[in-house]
Amino acid sequence: MAKSISPLDQHFSLPSIRTVDASRPLVWLKAGWSDLRGNLGASLTYGLALSFVGYLILSNAADIPYLFTAAISGFFLIGPAAASGLYQISRRYEKGEKSSFAESLAGLRDEAQSLMFFGALLAFVLLSWERLSAILFALFFRGNVPDISNFARDVLLSGEHMQFVAAYLLAGGVLAATVFALSAVAIPMILDRKVDIVTAMMTSFRATEKNLGTMFIWAMLIVVSVAIGFATMMIGMVLLLPLLGHATWHAYRDLVE
C-alpha cells in the first residue's frame, strides 16, 4: 500500500492517505463481522433500534411515493451519523475492550458537539433531498402518481417516464456520491482523532478520491446490503447495519494513516 500527500492535504493539515487494493472492502466486512460477534449485544441493539425507526418511517411514507423514495435514500445519507456508536464499539474492541450499549453511548460524549453538527448537516441534506424529490414528482407527473405497490412497474420499468427516471437518478446519484465521499470515514476520524468536521470531511474526500475503484466497490456493497434489508422488511437490517458500521471503522483505519 502506498501513501500520498497532495497540496490539498498540506493546506488543510490532512493526514496521509493510503492507496489500497480493490479487495479490501471484503477485509473490512470480515473485520466488522469479528467486531459484531465480539460485541453482539451492543451491536444488535443498534441494529434493532435503527431498523425499528426505519420501519416506522417507511410505513408512514408508504402511501406517498416521493416521500417513500426519499426515505429510502435517507438511509444512505444519515447512515454515517446513525452508526456513530458502532464506530465507538469497534474503537474500543481494537484496544481489547468490549462494550455495552450504554458504554458505547458514553464514549460519544467528548465529541457530542461535532457529532451533532455533522448529524445536523446530514439532516439538512436529507430535507433538501425530500424537497427536491417532491419538486421532481411535481414537474414530471400530471394527475395521480402511481401508488408505491405499482411504482416500479408503472414508472421505473414501463418506459413511459424516462425523463423523470433520468432526472431522479441523476440528481440522487450526484447527491449520494457527494455525501458518500465527504462522510465515508469522517465520523470515525472525529471519534478517533478529535478533529473538526471540515478536516474530517476533507480527509474522507481525499480517501475516496485516491481510492475511487475500491470505494466504488465499497459503496455498491453498502447499496446491496441496504437493499437486502429493505427486501426483508427491515429484518435483515438488524444484522446488516451493525456489520456495515463496524466495517466502516476498519475502512477508516485502513485508508487513513
What does this structure look like?
The chain is mostly helical and 257 residues long. The protein has one domain (38-255). The protein has helices at 7-11, 24-38, 40-61, 65-82, 84-94, 101-106, 112-140, 148-156, 162-183, 186-193, 197-210, 212-231, 237-255, and strands at residues 2-4, 17-19. It has a two-stranded antiparallel sheet. Helix 2 crosses helix 5 and helix 3 (40-61) crosses helix 13. Residues 1-5 have low confidence and may be disordered.
Q: Which H/E pattern describes the elements?
A: EHEHHHHHHHHHHHH
How many E strands? Answer: 2
Report the mean per-residue pLDDT as an integer: 85
Proportion of beta-strand residues? under 5%
Low-confidence parts lasting 5 or more residues at pLDDT below 50? Answer: 1-5
Strand order of the largest sheet: 1-2
Count of DSSP-assigned helices: 13
Number of domains: 1
Intertermini distance: 11 Å
Largest sheet: 2 strands, antiparallel
Nutshell version of this structure?
The protein is mainly α. The chain is built from 13 helices and two strands, in the order E-H-E-H-H-H-H-H-H-H-H-H-H-H-H.
Question: What's the structural blueprint in terms of helices and strands?
Answer:
Layout: E1 2-4, H1 7-11, E2 17-19, H2 24-38, H3 40-61, H4 65-82, H5 84-94, H6 101-106, H7 112-140, H8 148-156, H9 162-183, H10 186-193, H11 197-210, H12 212-231, H13 237-255
Antiparallel strand pairs: 1-2
